[in-house]
Amino acid sequence: MSTENLNKDQALDKMKSMVKDIKTCMLVTDFGNKPLSAVPMTTKEVDKEGNIWFFSRLDSDHNGDIAKDNDVQLLFSDTSDMEFISIYGKATIETNKNVLEEFYGKMDDAWFNGVDDPNLTAIKVVPKEAYFWDNKQNKFVTFLKIGAAAVTGDKKGDIGEKGKLNL
């Protein structure tokens, strides 16, 4: 696996692409307590600045955690395409009606009573740093390459890339 650290626009483009493809992540909050608090979240949007948006309930534990300490970790994982990205950032809870209306869709009715639900909030995560692992091929091809490397002893097989995204 080769290492490719990306900067600025390239880093932002890589992060946006991976987050848009994977969509669902584990949101980790309250780093000071063990075990860590992690909940699944579905991405609503990655805006042009690279901020990542989610919907959440006002009375949720993770909103309470963010109100006390806004450090968060987002862990995106797509095992079918062997793509992974870990994003550390700062989160804020947004209640601005324009923001809620911009991202609200019919599917959100499964969790909320419409865009006017008093418990509806948006979480905005501003990424500070990220690390990615992208195997370029699907799982089957990756396993074939790993198997070939095991048989031949060639540890240099190109099964993908990893690196830091300097945002």
UniProtKB/TrEMBL annotation:
Residues 11-155 form the General stress protein FMN-binding split barrel domain. This is General stress protein. It comes from the Bacteria. Pfam families: Pyrid_ox_like. SUPFAM superfamilies: FMN-binding split barrel.
